[in-house]
Design brief:
The structure holds 3 protein chains of 3 kinds. By secondary structure, chain A is mainly α. Helices cover 81% and strands 0% of the residues of chain A. Classes of the chains: A mainly alpha, B mainly alpha, C alpha+beta. Chains in contact: A-B, A-C.
Chain lengths: 114, 94, 174
């Protein structure tokens, strides 16, 4: 029963962070800030959901294959997600999409003069 | 047992909210980022629904969704980068 | 393209075979033999694209334990802190942001260390690594999009963004 409460708490934390990321994606003013907000979904939300599901699969379902598959899913998202995020941020900058307002420091444009 | 399906429906609803940004995003990068985020949320919903229904098929689908989410992101990123796979800082910038 | 060495092939084989077992998850001998044959073929053909530096770097238990301590302790602590900060900004109406691109110096030499540091910076919400460049003196610079620019000076910004992460990574990848 304790395991169920801990798992539900982790799922609730994950849901709160996923809601924060979704609000950020919908309401942030420019492209790069939306990318920053979407990182919130893909790190702590999926980590909390995976941990909760892992606890439930180990201690209540007693299923080794489900636990291993959930661990593989979380690990794979953690390994591959920053690579895609980095690629699309650099591609968006090079394709000419600029943040709209209040760009404080712009060293990238100064060094690569694009 | 039924709280898993509640959380699964909640994550799926968040994924549908992300599709709004996919539909109205001004740039292709916005659409791709929101689509990637929706993919991850759908993966979380599939994990929870597999625990609810007790069938391992949904976990396999979640593994494949997590694996293939990277490929379209890399593809769109490199397309926006105009196909420069190996970028050299000393070569031409055009 | 250099020729593949034996430790690289062995490391790739172990990775492929582990992934086969994870996806298949049955321990009958015929399936294990089929997986071993396929993994060996894949390792022979693709090890030279996959591993470029020393393959047995993590066989030292000191490095392995410091790596596990980094990924499970320091990195998770930074991740939770940055996530709470980002969630506050999102729930607060998305208006108190101050985005900009800064440039920070990095002292790590190894390719894998630089890649691990760039991925760690990208994973923490609030910072995304845009590019890695090397100047004429051989010093490495990262270009980072930061959502709340406190200072534009490279050393101070680097200390705020990557101070603990770089000290953690330097214990196992110099």
């Amino acid at each position: 029963m304790l395991i169920r409460i801990i798992a539900d708490l982790l799922l609730l934390i994950g849901a709160v962070f996923a809601l924060a990321g979704t609000i950020g994606i919908l309401k942030m003013p420019d492209t790069f800030s939306r990318m920053q907000a979407s990182t919130c979904v893909s790190t702590l939300a999926i980590l909390c959901v995976g941990l909760g599901a892992l606890l439930y699969a180990i201690f209540t379902m007693h299923s080794a294959s489900a636990a291993v598959k959930i661990a593989v899913i979380v690990l794979m998202i953690f390994v591959t997600n920053p690579v895609g995020s980095h690629a699309i941020a650099k591609g968006a900058y090079r394709a000419g999409f600029r943040p709209e307002k209040r760009m404080e420091v712009d060293e990238f444009r100064r060094d690569f003069d694009e | 047992m039924s709280d898993f399906v509640i959380f699964a429906v909640f994550f799926a609803a968040l994924a549908i909210l992300n599709l709004i940004r996919v539909a109205m995003g001004p740039t292709p990068a916005d659409r791709q980022v929101a689509g990637d985020s929706a993919d991850i949320l759908i993966t979380a919903a599939l994990i929870l629904f597999s625990l609810y229904s007790g069938r391992a098929v949904y976990l396999d689908i979640a593994v494949i969704a997590a694996m293939l989410g990277i490929i379209d992101t890399m593809l769109v990123g490199r397309y926006l980068d105009r196909g420069r796979w190996h970028y050299d800082a000393d070569s031409d910038h055009s | 393209m250099q020729k593949a060495k034996f430790p690289a092939i062995a490391a790739t084989f172990v990775l492929c075979f582990g992934f086969w077992i994870l996806l298949d998850f049955s321990f009958k001998p015929q399936e294990l033999i089929a997986g071993a044959v396929v993994s060996l073929l894949v390792a022979l053909f693709s090890a030279r694209f996959f591993i470029h530096e020393k393959a047995g770097w993590f066989c030292n238990p000191l490095r392995l334990f410091s790596a596990i301590f980094y990924w499970c302790g320091t990195f998770i602590a930074e991740l939770v802190k940055a996530n709470v900060d980002m969630a506050k900004r999102c729930f607060g109406g998305c208006r108190n942001i101050n985005p900009g691109i800064v440039k920070i110096p990095v002292d790590l030499k190894s390719d894998y260390g630089q890649a691990a540091l760039a991925n760690s910076i990208t994973m923490t919400p609030g910072t995304i690594t845009l590019d890695i460049a090397e100047d004429k003196d051989g010093k490495t610079w990262y270009y980072i999009h930061w959502i709340d620019v406190v200072t534009a000076e490279p050393e101070k910004a680097g200390e705020i963004i990557k101070g603990r992460l770089e000290r953690g990574i330097r214990r196992f990848w110099e």
